[in-house]
Amino acid sequence: MGLWTKKSIAVLQAEAAGESTEHTLRRALGALNLTTLGIGAIIGAGIFVLTGTAAAKFAGPAIVLSFIVSGFGCLFAGLCYAEFASMIPIAGSAYTYGYATLGEFVAWIIGWDLILEYLFGASTVAVGWSGYFTAFMAQLGIKMPTTFTSSPYYYADAPEIDPITKVLLHPAGFSHTGAVVNLPAIVLIALMSTLLVIGIKESARFNNFIVILKLAIVLLVIGFGFMYVNQANWHPFIPPNTGEYGHYGWSGIVRGAAVVFFAYIGFDAVSTAAQEAKNPQRDMPIGILGSLAICTVLYILMSLVMTGLAHYTELDVPHPVFVAIEKAGPALAWLGGIINIGAIAGLASVVLVMLMAQPRIFYSMARDGLLPPVFGKVHPRFKTPYITTIITGIVAAVVAGLFPIGLLGELVSIGTLLAFVIVCGGIIMLRYKSPNLARPFRTPLVPLVPILGILICGYMMTSLPWATWERLIVWMIIGLAIYFFYSRSHSKLARAEGSA
Q: I need a labelling partner for 35 at 20 to 30 A (CA). Which of 168, 194, 356, 485 fits?
């Protein structure tokens, strides 16, 4: 009892049906809202930021294959998420699914792990947004000082040496850049957090507008960009491995897949809004799988255009799409400003969805007693988890202001992959233990689909550098300390079973 206590599906469904005027989130989202929430989170850092980094450092033009590998991993995980989300329409995403199938201890691990995904995810994207915002202001003739628009720290897994001059660019580990703080990233997080406190419906409307804008811009880049592709930039399509695992070659494709995997995490953010969906049994699978399918196609096309316009070695910058378009010359100069506007708006909506997801994880954990009750407070007027939204915003702003995008991106990827592995495992266990439960959406080909999800996501985890694993282990040790010193003794379900 305690560690492995499970929350029954019947209890969770009863909670979902509860309509307490004071403590229940407002059901205001339809299938279209949920799909656009997914697209709002997915299309952002993957296309506008991390594609360039992953192509330059790991996969070259074969970053296209990295997106396909990641896409399959997400497809299998997404099918598992869709079954859970239709059965258990509760805020909390993988945390809630873990509680129902694997027990409280595993649920806590997932909940703590999801902080890496959503909170650090918001910080990562905010750093990318800052790069595009600074470039856009420079286009307008406003030169913003790098002292206040970039991270004061740079991180490298290994010493980085200029391939031509052989000069050491960055030593291994952290090095100081001379900057003070990334101020634009902090301001963006503050604005998005304020919008989220005001209301989920208002946030969804803002997101819908931004999604239409950035989809139009992505299609413009793909359509016009293909006309100016230099096919020589695609050769060799898979650059030869440098002798180090993950630096080009097939291992580089897998390493790139693990990094750009960050680009897909938006679809599971949809599941955190399950308690605010009007008809979650029907609409959650549509939102999750629909947003995933649309964005996978766009990612593949966009990465082909970017590596075709510019040599992959030139894309390791905070604003790679803008750099790629510049390489096309004057013919596409008109697209430069539009891209920056699209990236600025698009990345803002990603930050919005990430900051929306994390407080709802905290909300569910607090309702279960695993976090202090203050984390479960709902604003009496706005019906949003406002305390946790404010806390999440403050922490995300501090992280975005101080740390570089590469370090944050790898942390987010490993946290997301771990959550996906556990969700896929949960589907197998629930099918075995409770085969007769009503399932509005059924994951096909069980256990094959969840096993493939576990294998692909697990393999991508192994391709991330050991330093990222070390940080995950340290993060988990902190989480376990909190669980055993606070959460275990305050768990409502464990105490109810103990008193019974």
A: 194
